[in-house]
Structures are given as C-alpha cells and as structure tokens.
Amino acid sequence: MNSVEQNPTVAPHLVVESLGKVFHGGDEPLEVLQGVNLTMRRGDRLAITGPSGSGKSTLLYIVGTLDTPSDGRVLVDDENPFDRDEAGLARFRNDEVGFVFQDHHLLPQCTVLENVLVPLLAGTGVGNDVRQRAQHLLERVGLAERLGHRPAQISGGERQRVAVCRALINQPSLLLADEPTGNLDQRTAEAVGTLLLELAAEEESVLICVTHSLELAGRFPMHRELRNGLLAEVGAPS
Known about the structure:
By secondary structure, this protein is an alpha/beta fold. It is built from seven helices and nine strands, in the order E-E-E-H-E-H-E-H-H-H-E-H-E-H-E-E.
C-alpha cells in the first residue's frame, strides 16, 4: 500500500497519481520517486519520514508546485495545477498552498505582524479583515504581545510560530511543512508540532509534514515512510 485514504465518503481534495521524478545532470539519471500514489481529504494530516535523500522534500515540493514531476500527475480539487501557465501556477501557490520550512525565512526589516501579511501583498492586498485574521492567528499561537517586534527580537521558537501563521494567512487548502521543527529544541519542537496539527485541523487544510523526527511523526493521525521511491506503511518490509 503506498496511498493514504481516510473517510472515503468525503471527496478527495489532493490526489497524487503514479508520481515519478528523475533528476538528470550526473553520470546517470537519478530516479527519486517511482510511482507515488496519495489520496487526502480536507483536514487529513500526514507525516512522511524516510532516510536523507529518499525524496521526501522532492515530493513535498512537487505537491506544492515548486518542482515539476517527471511522470504522473497531481490533482487538487480535480484540477492539475501544472496545466496552468507560470502566472497561473504562482496564483495557485499563493491561494492554495502554505509552506513552513526548517528555516523561518522571515523578513528581518518587517515586524511580526507584517511578516504574516507578506503573502497577501501578491494577491488581494491587506484589508482590515485580513489584518484581523493575522492578529487572531498570532494571538492563537501566543504572540499577541509580539506584533510590533522584529524577528531579531524574538526567540527561534517564536519565529517559527510566526512562519506557521504566515503559511495559514491565505487559508490554504494545502499546508506543507518541511522539517518544521528541525532547528528547535525538544520542548519548542513539541509546541510547534502541536500548533501545526491543531491549526491544520481547525482550518481544514490538508497537512503534509516531512520530518526526521519520529516523535513528531508519531503524533500525526497518518504516518508513512518514503522508501525506494514509494510511500509505504511504517515498518512494512521493503
């Protein structure tokens, strides 16, 4: 079994079919993904683990349209975003995808509140409603007293919480996290992991998190390993 499917009575939001990825440029082509299948519904939360170089981040970036597949297809609400032109793909990423990376990538010159609002600058702009949403998200993650602070004035865990809020500001249907707790101490990692799980459930986003942390992965309702280019049940023989 290399697909994830929960609550089959609800229409899937994300479908990945026979996804393959081959990198060229070395002495020989490097096949990283070899027919990955994945089905997820709004509110589903999946952790993907696997050894370094197994293709976890590659899979995440293809789902988020930061990379392109060599084979297969990705469907989001029955649409293949790769059928869009470059401008359409950029709109898709801005409207439908929220990314959380290992490094928070906050803008040092902007305040906490301004950093959360950055994705809206490429879209509809910042009105009172979205500003209130940003403030609500920051309050939700315990940063109500940090709105006017800049990244250098807050801790690493607080910066990562800001990054989570930024990823959610556009109410994305896909929340994709790449080693979101990799730079954090254990206590802070637990707090950020809890926030990701709770906020994704509240927002009814599809959450996919790739991580080396088995502790974090074990807290997800769904957990798969990426091995030999395929998603597999945890502990299943190769």
